[in-house]
Design a protein that fits this description.
The structure is a single chain. The chain folds into two domains: 1-54, no CATH class; 56-91. 52% of the residues lie in helices and 0% in strands. It has helices at 2-8, 25-42, 59-80.
Length: 91
């Protein structure tokens, strides 16, 4: 059951910050994945059941990971918005 859930309940949509070109493989895959996601959101009754589960967190690393993710997010967007120099934030 977990393998089936993983196979049907994950979506890969890399590169969606750029226009998707259906003539390229990467664009076509992203469009197919977005269509599948939207279909699942429109019809949640078709989702595969997860059974009983609960999240397990490493509390020590969770707060550090959240803080680092927020810092990286803000740094990139400050660079994109021109609020400070960030060579990793391409325009």
């Amino acid at each position: 059951m977990p393998q089936r859930r993983i196979a049907v309940a994950r979506f890969f949509v890399g590169g969606i910050h750029e226009p998707l070109n259906a003539k390229k493989n990467s664009g076509r895959r992203a469009i197919q994945q977005l269509d599948a996601l939207l279909d699942l959101l429109a019809h949640p009754e078709t989702a595969v059941g997860t059974g009983e589960s609960r999240p397990v967190f490493n509390r020590m690393n969770l707060s550090v990971a959240v803080m680092e993710a927020a810092k990286t997010f803000h740094s990139k967007w400050r660079g994109l918005l021109g609020l400070h120099y960030n060579p990793d934030a391409e325009r």
